[in-house]
């Protein structure tokens, strides 16, 4: 099944496998063919999967799991923490610099953002949610959202931010998509009671 989504901004192909598997077994089966369990980016994706399930008269495993480590968007472990309590809030939050202080915000807020490439920091004024900002840094600048590992980097980022409120590369979320996609989509009201790989 092919499906274009605006949330992922790309055409994706979904394969449904008929045998009932555990989540781990389904993930292994998908990985054997260079696939992954499905990531949902928006309500359009959720509706597509839900309608597919109804047509197939079955259920599917999705690629969302609990147990994310706290890392910067570039994969570096968080070793520096500037006036911010990490791990207290288990909901999905993203970190911005606001009034020269690290501040936790809803990841869907639209803000300017800072990318880091080869030690250079660039502030982009266009407002995006956290995932859109990350995608922009990676695709347009071939960089990542800024990560901060010491006091001097923190001061440099604040100085380059010129008193703006902007995203940095830290997201705290107890859930992650197994394909490492950046998706802010979470909907607790819909339950996919699932047994197959998609």
Automatic annotation (TrEMBL):
One Pfam family it belongs to: Lectin_C
Entry-linked InterPro entries: C-type_lectin-like, C-type_lectin-like/link_sf, CTDL_fold
Highest rank taxon of the organism: Eukaryota
PROSITE patterns: C_TYPE_LECTIN_2 (PS50041)
Bilayer-spanning residue ranges: none
SMART domains listed in its UniProt record: CLECT
Domain named C-type lectin: residues: 9-116, 121-198
Gene3D superfamilies named among the record's database cross-references: Mannose-Binding Protein A, subunit A
Name of the protein described by the UniProt record: C-type lectin domain-containing protein
């Amino acid at each position: 099944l092919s499906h274009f989504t605006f949330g992922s901004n790309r055409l994706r192909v979904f394969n449904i496998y008929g045998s009932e598997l555990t989540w781990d077994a389904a993930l292994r089966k998908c990985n054997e063919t260079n696939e992954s369990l499905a990531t949902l980016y928006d309500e359009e994706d959720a509706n597509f999967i839900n309608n597919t399930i109804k047509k197939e008269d079955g259920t599917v495993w999705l690629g969302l799991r609990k147990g994310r480590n706290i890392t910067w968007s570039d994969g570096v472990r968080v070793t520096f923490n500037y006036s911010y309590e990490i791990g207290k809030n288990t909901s999905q939050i993203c970190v911005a610099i606001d009034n020269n202080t690290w501040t936790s915000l809803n990841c869907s807020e639209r803000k300017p953002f800072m990318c880091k490439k080869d030690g250079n920091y660039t502030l982009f004024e266009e407002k995006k949610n956290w995932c859109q900002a990350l995608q922009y840094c990676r695709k347009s600048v071939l960089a990542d959202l800024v990560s901060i590992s010491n006091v001097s980097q923190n001061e440099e980022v604040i100085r380059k931010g010129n008193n703006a409120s902007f995203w940095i590369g830290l997201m705290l979320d107890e859930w992650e998509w197994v394909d490492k996609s950046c998706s802010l989509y979470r909907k607790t009201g819909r339950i996919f009671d699932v047994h197959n790989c998609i």
